[in-house]
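SAMPLE LOG
Freezer: B-3
Tube label: C17
Construct: single chain, 185 aa
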Amino acid sequence: CMRSSGLQGILGFDPVQEPETGTLEWWFSRIHPDDVEHSNRAIADLCPEKNIYEAEYRMLHKSGHWVYVSDRGVLASYVDGKPTRIVGSTTDITNHKRLEAQLKHERNNALIAKERAEEMTRLKSSFLCNMSHEIRTPMTAILGFAEILKEKIENSDLAEHAAIIESSAKRLLDTINTILNHAQI
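STRUCTURE (predicted):
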């Protein structure tokens, strides 16, 4: 069984000047070791009932780098339970695989960023809850004691100071409530 000159061109070989590159042995020798079993299984599964061959695998380019290829073919002849000829095409899908890997990488980065943002939101909510309690509780006490002092103090100057403390504390509590409410949104 001979391979087509299309595959030889994809892998950087000239079928006229390098005719040995058209053999099945040459083809097997160029397949990435991790992909040999997958490619062999796709061929072995061919039979008259299942006569379509499809496989994606890596092959060694003449210059030494790996090229992803996609083989699509139809069983043309079958003898003694074995495929003897497949007619089809081989396509260089290296760029497609590169883009696919890049997309997967970017998707992973987006997922990590999303998880970090969610964690930051949880931390912010926890912080706001703690701040709400830690700030509002003392402010309530300041307001209560300022009101008591204002009522109990007979000296008008001191009572006026207590009233200033109370009104300032109310204004500060309103500001704190507004800030915390906006931060929660």
